[in-house]
Amino acid sequence: MLTEKKRLLTGLQSSGDLHIGNYFGALKPFVEIYKEYESFLMVADYHALTSVRNPEALRRNTLNVVRDYLAAGVDPEKAVIFRQSDNQDHTELGWIMNCMVTVPFLMQAHSYKDKVAKGIEPNAGLFTYPMLQAADIALYNIDTVPVGEDQRQHLEYTREAIGKFNRAYGETLKEPQEMILDGVGVVLGTDGLKMSKSYRNTIPLFGSTEEIQKAVMSIVTDSTGDRPENVYAIHRLLKSAAELDPIYEANKGRYGDLKKLLTADLEAFIAPMREVRATITDEMVQEVLAAGVDKAKAVSHVTLKKVRSAIGID
Ligand code: ADP
Ligand code: TRP
After folding, report:
1. Which of 40, 65, 203, 258 falls between 20 and 30 A from 9, CA-CA?
2. Which residue in 136, 156, 153, 145 sits closest to 180, CA to CA?
3. 115 lines ligand 1 (CB under 6 A)
């Protein structure tokens, strides 16, 4: 008997160069399972507009994120790779989702509060960001969303908006589940805080050898002579505790040597993907996006039609 595949979707904002936190938190978990699902991989460029004001940078970042998806091993024949802004169903359902939730509810969002605390402009787009994300997911009847820990609440917000819609209008949209893997939900940056594009504490996923070296050398270590936890935490993404513990024990206090070992391991992991990435042209990326948007629309139009009919706008 044919069983229908479940649906998987994730998205990354095109707000800057991807880092190893994005990779281990969201992209790798997607790559590992996407062939078992009917899969969608989006570039969230309208979300990036909440923080990027430079059109050239947004354009370049958007193409680069797709290039990164391909270099990370996503086959565009087996996943629908598309750009959010190419499909207006996202902004339309985003508006409808906005009408499902209250201002005090959105005011509780950690991500919004954290970004504002960091000095990012509290524009209205940033405030309603979780409802555009709810639309991204609801349009495709998604079961599972691989993300980092920082997105857990956004998935709760997605379910809340969908739940309110369904209670008001009858079962129309599917409630998704987040998939957050143990140990990689929060990848720490060079300063020991969550690695983030906006914190200047990243190790770039496709950095040059020199950039990786520079980032590793900048990892903050204390001077107690014990294990340098910030170095070890990043190293654990690449190797098991059983492999690393004897090395860290044998090199106690030799932070420079341990950082060199980490640099070499990062280089060995990044170099093959970097080589693939260098072969991917802008034309290839454009082709992938052109094919992706048609496949995405074929699914989202069906959902949006049901939604419009349910709410009385048809
Ligand atoms: P950033 O915080 O760097 O701007 P995004 O908000 O675009 O990154 O996040 C894209 C995806 O990567 C999300 O699923 C997010 O949870 C994940 N992610 C981002 N930073 C980390 C991190 N430090 N550790 C684990 N996952 C992360
Ligand atoms: N908000 C996510 C982030 O900052 C990006 C995103 C937008 C997303 N739409 C999505 C992630 C839909 C998963 C599903 O990382």
Report:
1. 203
2. 145
3. no
Most informative mutation of 150, 180, 188, 236 for ligand 1 (most atoms within 8 A of CB) = 150
Best CA proximity match to 61, nearest among 16, 109, 128? 16
pLDDT at 1: 54
Give me the residue spans of the domains in the chain. 7-185+282-311, 207-276
Taking only the tens place, the pLDDT of each residue in 15-74 is 999 999 999 999 999 999 999 999 999 999 999 999 999 999 999 999 999 999 999 999
At 188 the three-state DSSP class reads: strand
Classified by CATH at the fold level, domain 7-185+282-311 comes out as Rossmann fold (3.40.50)
Comparing CA positions, the residue from 164, 160, 158, 167 lying closest to residue 139 is 158
What tokens were used for 4? 């229908």
Beta strands 7-13 and 38-44 are: parallel
pLDDT tens digits, residue range 123-138?
A: 999 999 999 999 999 9
Is ligand 2 within 6 A of the CB of residue 85?
no
In order of 108, 120, 123, 127, 267, the CA distances from 112 in angstroms are 8, 9, 10, 6, 34
Mean per-residue pLDDT for 274-293?
97
Q: Give the ligand whose atoms come closest to the C-alpha of residue 44.
A: 2
Q: Helices (DSSP H) in 99-222: which residue ranges?
A: 103-107, 110-117, 124-138, 152-169, 209-217
By most ligand atoms within 8 Å of CB, the mutation choice from 50, 89, 133, 137 for ligand 2 is: 133
Q: In this model, does residue 163 exceed pLDDT 80?
A: yes
- pLDDT tens-place string over residues 224-240: 768 999 999 999 999 99
d(CA 104, CA 194): 27
As a whole number, mean pLDDT of residues 85-98 equals 98
- Taken in order 134, 137, 138, 139, is the CA torsion positive or negative? positive
The pLDDT of residue 2 is above 70: no
Q: What mean pLDDT is predicted for residues 162-188?
A: 96
